[in-house]
Amino acid sequence: MKLGILGGTSLAKALGKKFINAGISVVFGVHPDFDVEEVEWKMLNRLHHRICPFESAIIQAEILLICSENEHLQAIWQSFKNTDTSDKLIIDCTNTTYSNKINHSPTKILKRIAPKAHLFKAFNNLGMDYPLYDPLGIIKETYFCGDEVPEKIRVKRLIELIGFKAIDAGKFNNATLLEAFYHLGKEIAVNKNENSQFHFKLISI
Question: Can you give the pTM of this predicted structure?
Fold first, then answer.
């Protein structure tokens, strides 16, 4: 099994390292202007040549995580259109910009451009700059949603493999709800004038 992570963000690097340490083969798909000479990325690429263009990563990988900045999503959508995504498992880890009010969520676009893929949402609560605001590793949970039962079990196991608690948030249509929680945390931080992030923890009573 090969896992492809699309994006050159801090989240992409952090999740990639966790999966590599867990014994998973990982390839990173990045945009053409990406700086592969940055120290940590150079180390990731040095031995196994893991960094390649978006399309190459999509072709190679069975499971894909989208961990890109929003500005590069159009290039990723085009790469999906140029490749065969049938039966691939795609996990969207992004959040639309708040100004779009969730209506232009990447998860809705994915339904159109990858209709034969198995689509899921997960890890978006961490944010693209993870683990910058969580240096002590306090965040232990991520919510995930999707429709397919066998593949959903695989997603749950992937999340647990790298040390997170996987909380099932239901069908794929609930992806926009997960994005809303992310933006609520950002708004709380803005209103408190703090250079930090706020995360939610599920409590059962």
Answer: 0.92
